[in-house]
Design a protein that fits this description.
Layout lengths: L1 H17 L13 E2 L15 H13 L4 E7 L3 E7 L4 E8 L4 E4 L2
Antiparallel strand pairs: 1-5, 2-3, 3-4, 4-5
Length: 104
């Protein structure tokens, strides 16, 4: 009789951990875009690395978060987003379209 109760209790504990990420609003809403480009991927030209880093820092500065660039390729930039406690998101920024996507 105790064995089934223990199993149910353990399953409830693991289920709570599995869905903890879905609480609250995301740091980077799905499909968000850089304010320097228009909606729907309408940048006039591909941004330079400098412009893209500045755009990301401006975007997350409004949310009181810091940006740490991990990798800057020809088209995409991968960055970590931090608050005072640690990493809150990892994103990919498309320099051509201005789209910001969370990969965390």
């Amino acid at each position: 009789m105790i064995f089934p109760v223990v199993i149910v209790f353990l399953l409830q504990l693991t289920a709570l951990d599995a869905f903890a990420w879905s609480e609250g609003t995301p740091v980077t809403p799905y499909g968000d875009f850089c304010p320097q480009c228009g909606k729907y991927g309408t940048c006039n030209t591909i941004m330079t690395n400098y412009d893209a880093e500045k755009a990301l820092k401006d975007y997350y500065d409004r949310k009181e978060l810091e940006v740490e660039i991990q990798d800057a390729g020809e088209r995409f930039i991968k960055a970590r987003i931090h608050d005072a406690q640690g990493i809150v998101d990892i994103i990919i920024f498309d320099r051509r379209t201005g789209r910001i996507r969370s990969i965390y």
